Amino acid sequence: MRNPNHYGSVVKLSGKRRRPYLVRGGVYGYDDRGYPQFDIIGYAATREEGNLLLAEYNRNPWDVNRAKITLKQLFELWKEKKMPKLGKANQKCLCSAFGHCAMLENLPYKQIKAYQMQDCIDNCGKGYSTQGAVKSLWGHLDRFALELDVITRCYSDLLTSDPAPPTTRDRFSEKEIQLLWQRQTEPWVDTVLIFIYSGWRISELLAIKKTAVDLQAGAMIGGTKTKAGKNRMVPIHSAIRPLIERRMKEPGEYLISRNGKRCSESAYRRFWKEVMEPLGIQKTPHECRHTFESMLDSAGANRKCIDLMMGHVSKDTGNRVYNHKTLEELKTAIELIQRKPA
What does pTM read for this prediction? Predict the structure, then answer.
């Protein structure tokens, strides 16, 4: 029976060969002399084996044409097969990083060398964060290409990028926290205190809906950035409970709202500036998170409890895999933070 058009064929080669049957795909073009060009799928010892290989090729053609697959084609395939398993923020970051590799997108992936990958990093014109994203993308693509037998070694292992600079972020001092408590009735000051005593990221706290705040259980549920940070439970510290209760009585769907609607991050940063400048405090919202972890650590809180409330993955296997904590244990840990009297 004749194969369908563009299905490919199994051809016996001349001479004595261990695998004399050439398995080729359909015609994908013609050379300058008019001769047809085929995808070479492989070689087989028998015609039956060749037909099985050809059938597998037509069932999964993306998994066979290793010699000609370009960087762009591999990236698109990786996006389909592998990227959905990553977090949304990571997906967006890696897709953006691909733009810095666009000069190589039409090259067969197996021909791309380490120095070309490194050039994409060095010439992206961006800082350590973007350089790290480009390096990470090459690592993802290399591992995927290795899985598909497109390459036999990962050049991405040789790549380098600028290291992250030492952090300049600091924690709020006890004096600054006391100053905020003294001004707690002023607009938006309460949100700063909620940040300090709960450790949420700015995007996480602004996204918390009132339905995720359980006053009876004494906890809030939120988190968006990482797998460990998503849908985590943070107890409501007794010091900020009155602030939370007042916010819950205000109109709107979200705990932190503006005129009954969700407050955007850009708008909140403007309010933050209006709070901080008159007090002479030079801190960012993220430094509330630094303060929360520092206060817990200084108070001697259990490390696993700190990691759970911060949305971090515990570094040691025992805490990461075998150590489980209840809400009551988290409450005990958070209440180790003492509000000092004004």
Answer: 0.56
